[in-house]
Fold this protein.
Amino acid sequence: MRFPFLTLALLALTPNLTLRAAESELGRRSPSELRTLVDRVTGRPLTVLTTGPSNDQKNYQTHPQWAYDGVHIIFRSIDRNPAKTPQAYAVNEVTGAITQLTDGPDVDTYSLNVSRRAMRLYYLRGKPADGPQRLVVLDVAALLADSAAGAVKERAAYERLLATLPAEHKGAGGFDIDADESAAYFGVRFQDGPPREPGKPIPQVPSGIAAVDLATGAYRIVHRTPFLMGHVQVNPWVPGEIIYCNETGGDAPQRIWTVRADGTGDRPLFPEQTGDWVTHEVVVDRDTLIFNLMGHTPALRQRPTGIMALDLRTGAVTPLGQITRGQGFWHSHGTPDGRWALGDNFDGEVFLLDRRTGEIRLISTGHVMKPDHTHPNFSPDGTRILVQSGMLTGGTSLDLMLIPVPETAAP
């Protein structure tokens, strides 16, 4: 039996929609894959947005998932299209229809940045080995409208070049778009390091942050670090506020840092003590960063662990909770209104944390943490949680699923 702990109810599929001509896959539309699953452990329904053999992955929880219209979720897939090239897609959360947003062999799908201010998508084209990469922006609204009408134009009608990155640009830690969308901030490394040895931390090399002016394309170095740059994100409410980390692939001596876009104000966030293992930081409102203080070993549990909320202005830290089962929490997220936080664990379970009462509730189970982790995050309105799950394939590929925040937990 493929789903021993689930009851499967297949929703009606939307009609098969317009397919693009063979010469281009841009705007290619696929029928709905919507299904509902009922978790027999929690009784909560799941909405499955993508199914099948394709490997569909959400954006990292530090970045937006929902398009500006609040209806489409933008994701990447490694092999969903006929050409079997990594591309960006949008799935309509209501109808389930899936639209291919990019085409060609040179799309960097690990750099998808969904605009918070309009129906736009920022990403890179090109591979460093083949020459300078290019930062482009896509008019998502126009492409979705033309795709629905069966009148998709050439790529140039939707995609615009913003900047060509210097040939020496080497990415490290991804990039994000500033809150006012005036600039993009890239993690960069200034030299190559030796290969990572199995079981060892990632070798550290001088790194930094570069900024690209989205109006002029001008490129400048904002900040330099002696360690490897990782997880570059912005504060979506405060222009020019950048959060980054020391990426080691494990426990960093000091994980979380912040710096201003003009290079000033560089400082550690949550100064670590011996025995702290900090990970998976994400800005959840104007003044709050949520992170996880790991407790996955007996030694770490000798000190308080769990999901923490850090005040970006005062540095004050508020513990939000930890679970005793298994190895504790792993990833985390929160709602901008300060009501909810969430965490997953190493067993693919998702928990809802009520920040008002301190209650921790198990709401979803069985999300196989292969071939990647769930990386859960809330919808902009805080009513749904998006995960990527290996549940349906036993961990051979990922599907996108929505977990509703329980109605009984509403204010």
Observations:
- Confidence is low (pLDDT under 50) at residues 1-22.
- The radius of gyration is 21 Å.
- Residues 140-149 form the longest helix (10 residues).
- The CA atoms of residues 172 and 187 lie 5 Å apart.
